[in-house]
Amino acid sequence: MHTYHREVPSPLQALWDVLDDHSATTTSLPRAVFRVLAFLGLTGTLIGPYVVLGLFGRHRKAPVARLWHRLACAICGLEVVVRGEPEPGRAVMFAANHVSYLDIPVLGAVLDARFVAKSDVAGWPLFGLLARLSDTVFVTRDRRAAGGDCARVSGCMTTGDRLVLFPEGTSSDGSAVLPSRTALFAALEKDRAPVDALVQPVSIAYAGYADGRPLRGFMTDLYAWYGDMTLFGHLMTVFGLKGARVEVTFLPPIRPGGRLNRKALARACERAVASGLARSHKRPVVQWESESVQFGAEFLAQYVDGHEIALNVHVPERPAVAGRQVLDVRTDLVDRPLEAVGR
């Protein structure tokens, strides 16, 4: 069992001894309570100035938002490592994979942008209030309302807003990129977005625990929030853990238009994010396209060769069942041994 020791000034050593449970991945209740109080104190302190400055324009309150995001990451023990450079211009959509609610402070700490989120987030306790105050662009993700969602996003881009979109539409364990929902990419098609609009793929990888071990296998669930995990329970676990290293990779931007319709644009972002994610997790990348999700272990074995891989599968017109099969394959390739692949 690995034990992580941090050098701290001697006056703080006694406090650290209380907060440190000397167990690699076990949550510490004293640490969790301390961080909850710190988080509430931070939010209570900054929310007043944030609201007041917001009366004079969004740009006035942006520094307060950036400070909140950075301190929230510090409270959660997240070390954010940035690779590449975010596009500095206006009318930029950052398309990122989605691993956890922690993605919000992680990206907010390094970007000045508005987030695009599902409308039900507005009703979440505390976080819904924070989302509304931060001018989140809420969308329904309902196909019947896709036109309205698209118009809302393109309207923000036209006024020069920088947006963060999670095209997967849901969170995952972070081991691979889920198939994108392409509807909102239509906001970037010709005659809808500004001529100088850009899409920049961004990969978010919760790459390592505080003691240096990679976050793989069962350890991915320490920071990934997905499926039927409860928000409160997972958040308390995060507050009780020692911390993690998060790698944010800004990949080369893509200029929409021409032949890049919404599906092609989403597919290009998927490929880029998958490659960034694989590099952060130090895995080789295999890119493969097929009309079918049926493939054998023989095909995979010539690429895998005993190593973990990130497989980016594209199925042009995948029904719901096929989509689930693709997700299962991706997860199995990362978490199961080679001899199990293809069973």
Strand content: 5-15%
What's the total count of β strands? 9
Helix count equals: 10
Largest sheet: 7 strands, mixed
Instruction: Name the poorly predicted regions.
Output: 1-9, 286-343
User: Biggest sheet, strands in spatial order?
Assistant: 1-7-6-2-5-3-4
**Intertermini distance:** 33 Å
State the share of residues found in helices, binned by percent: 25-40%
Q: What is the chain-wise order of helices and strands?
A: HHHEEHEHEHEEHEHEHEH
Helix/strand/pairing class, anyone?
Answer: alpha/beta
Rg over CA atoms, rounded to whole Å, is: 21 Å
Q: Mean of residue pLDDT? A: 78
Broad shape: globular
Oligomer: single chain
List keywords for this structure.
343 residues, alpha/beta, seven-stranded mixed beta sheet, two-stranded parallel ribbon, 10 helices, 9 strands, 39% helix, 15% strand, disordered N terminus, disordered C terminus
Describe this structure in words.
- The protein is of the alpha/beta class and 343 residues long.
- The protein has helices spanning 10-19, 29-54, 58-75, 103-108, 127-133, 146-158, 231-240, 262-280, 297-304, 320-335; strands at 78-83, 92-96, 114-118, 137-139, 163-165, 198-209, 244-250, 285-289, 310-314.
- Helix 5 (127-133) links the parallel strand 3 (114-118) and strand 4 (137-139).
- Helix 2 (29-54) runs antiparallel to helix 3 (58-75) and helix 2 crosses helix 7.
- The chain is globular.
- The two termini are 33 Å apart.
